[in-house]
Amino acid sequence: MPTSDSFxxxxxxxxxxxxxxxxxxxxMSSERRRQTQLREQTFHCCACFYTDNIFLEDxxxxxxxxxxxxxxxxxxxxxxxxxxxxxxxxKSVLLKIEKEVQRRKRLGEQSLERRLAISQSYKPLHPQxxxxxxxxxxxxxxxxxxxxxxxxAGLDGLLSRIQSISDKRIYRFPVFTQEFCSQFIEEMENFExxxxxxxxxxxxxxxxxxxNELGFDERFIAPLREKYLQPVTSIxxxxxxxxxxxxxxxxxxxxxxxxxxxxxxxxxxxEVTVNVSLGKEFxxxxxxxxxxxxxxxxxxxxxxxxxxxxxxxxHRGEHVHGALPIASGERWNLIVWxxxxxxxxxxxxxxxxxxxxxxxxxxxxxxxxxxALQAPETVDVCAVI
Length: 385
Description:
By secondary structure, the protein is of the alpha+beta class. The protein has ten helices and 19 strands. The strands form five sheets. Strands 6, 7, 8, 9, 11, 12, 15 and 17 form an eight-stranded antiparallel β-sheet that branches. It has a four-stranded antiparallel β-sheet with strand order 10-16-13-14, with no helix packed on it. A three-stranded mixed β-sheet has the order 2-1-19, with no helix packed on it.
């Protein structure tokens, strides 16, 4: 029998098929080595982050800004049709764009500063919610995950265990218990009351919490993605990197009559998104889904989806969607944008070009320097022993 040095070269993400003493072939997972590799990766954002998809809230539109001449040429006429009719109005828009561009350029640095301040001064109300436990998860969700990890796992079996929304590959299933949702919201509200610095969840939501800044990334969101959500997405979205989701951005958003009321139509900077309704008491504010972003706006078909507390909606990031106005109460949602370097390293989903990488802090936008985290190759060791 050859030594390990005699085996064919294996990537760190290879799945190794070995022979048991009875001669039956068995699979030895390389997930542990893969996770070690992920922790050693440096993630990047695409240069388009500083120029593209800048949301103008007053006009409910996204724009690209390289310089004033380009912007005026592409958008001055469109903005006039939306009510931006004077030079004064246009200069106000340009000032807001410049402020947003500067915010994006300093985002990593400022986020790190906020996280440090929070870690030094914030006293959690419910410290236990910062570490993911099975008891937080709905029993039905645990059953679904067990099935997805079993030898019987398959799309038909999974679809019989979750709810399909229309024919748009949108799915719903329980994720958290009611008790956990209540405690989690109480923790978010406790942080909101503090005087500590807070960052916006994204360029469209003004109210909510960036969970990495509050300390949820390593012991809550990362294991939620790796151990529980990825087995599900690997079956639902194999064509969108569902099996190789190696980074994320997680945040909580809040809607109320005195804060954000709704969310304009958009798509996510993610391969796969999970959106979990946490509560509280609210009316209206349903989500709506159109088609994938490549479908022209005048050809899109819409479906409206109600929130169910404790349950998550999972969909492809490029699926155009939004939220209707809330009518009363408060609505809190946990959103995780899950990303696959294997997919996005080839084409940036925000500019549709080969990504121009810019080094940043943390997960960035999920890009890596190379396709080292490619889909694993399967090597049959039985054939070479």
